[in-house]
Design a protein that fits this description.
Blueprint (H helix, E strand, L loop, with lengths): L5 H19 L2 H26 L7 H18 L17 H4 L1 H24 L2 H22 L3
Length: about 150
């Protein structure tokens, strides 16, 4: 007897686990989770922005550490936008849920730019790092403009 390929089985199990996990998460906990993710991103974005703007000396090792943390956190944010989190203590606009595809696409763009920033930061080319930081910031702002109440 031939066993099914491991990747499709793993994908089905992961989907089932995720769906089951969401059913157990309270909306207010998911909102708190995503706020925490964005707080960490903001925490690490600050020093990078200060370095890029020349407010503090550019330190390639520190910049790389911050960029890696942002790249690690960026994909986690979307996990906090589960059903039922459109209400409560949140600045998320209703457009997230009425235009989910655009929101998800913008979040993925931020994830991609964050990963690219982390990779460039590891290479140490300050000019390339600063340019990519600008692109990463634009990707972050694109979501804020349309999907977050200020």
């Amino acid at each position: 007897m031939r066993l099914p390929a491991p990747i499709p089985v793993a994908a089905v199990l992961a989907t089932a686990f995720t769906a089951g996990a969401w059913a157990q998460v309270k909306p207010e906990d998911a909102i708190e989770y995503r706020k925490s993710v964005f707080t960490v991103v903001k925490w690490d974005f600050g020093p990078m922005a200060a370095m890029v703007k020349g407010k503090i000396p550019f330190d390639a090792m520190q910049f790389s550490a911050h960029a890696n943390r942002v790249a690690n956190m960026a994909p986690r944010a979307l996990e906090g936008f589960i059903p039922g989190t459109d209400e409560g203590d949140t600045r998320a606009k209703p457009e997230i849920w009425t235009d989910w595809d655009t929101f998800e696409s913008r979040m993925q763009t931020f994830v991609d730019h964050s990963a690219r920033l982390a990779a460039l930061a590891g290479e140490g080319d300050e000019a390339a790092i600063k340019k990519q930081f600008g692109e990463t910031g634009k990707a972050c702002k694109a979501c804020h403009d349309d999907f977050r109440e200020d």
